[in-house]
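Consider a concrete sample entry:
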Amino acid sequence: MGGRISVRGMRFAGTFYPSDRLKLIDFIRGSIDEAVVVGGRGIGNSLAYIVPHAGYAYSGKVASHSYKAIASGKVLDNTDTVVVIGPNHTGIGPDISVSGCSWRTPLGDIVNDYQLSSSIAKSMGVKLDESAHEDEHSIEVQLPFIKYIAPELKGCFICMADQSLDASNRLCLSIVSSAKRLGRNLILIASSDLNHFESDKVSERKDMELLGNVCKMRVDGFERGVSALNDSVCGPGAIMTAMGFAKANGAKRGVILKYSNSGEANGDYRSVVAYASVSLY
């Protein structure tokens, strides 16, 4: 399905996160209150973050560390739009899908920055597309947190099926150039879980080596590490785009705000999905 649609409805409310507004607020508020932001004074001024996208029972508390970092600084005072980039889990739609919709959450709609979305799509040589977003959770689960901490922020929602380094570089350039041309100040969220379905110890060993490249802002090293380590991180394209965007805005390093895995929620540490919140600043 192509073209512009006014509002994308919620697909995962009641499964990945609470559909009840008050219960959702209680979870988000409680998780942000519990989160501890580490890494120094610059964290709250970061323009790019890596955030997990599993159900809130599994990764919501990890995600809250990134959103507390965003809310704790002054960066929101000068931000127009949040760009949320997630991987395409369904295989539906084109290589790069930029939504033209506003997106609904139980806390209200996030209005699409249609000028920015259209500019990025045109720069990438693609049409605005909704098909990849219809049954994809990686972007939607970020939005209640965003709506809670910054209710007036506009959004740009991008789903990546092609997660190659080349596609990431092109998307990063399109975002940076479009923002500059339109005079937009952006925050970028890369939605990604880390290693899947190995033990917690194996996952942590792989992930820490991979995230070491992120923290040193080595995009090429990260890209090589995904293959060399056989790390099943599901949003490498989103992460590499975030690293490029952060570097283009003067970021020098990253810091891991929180690392955990699904075993903390279900008690099974033999086969986990790992999660991290990372700030690039």
About this structure: The domain at 7-280 is CATH 3.40.830.10 (Protocatechuate 4,5-dioxygenase; Chain B). Residues 156 and 227 are 29 Å apart (CA to CA). The chain has a mean pLDDT of 96.
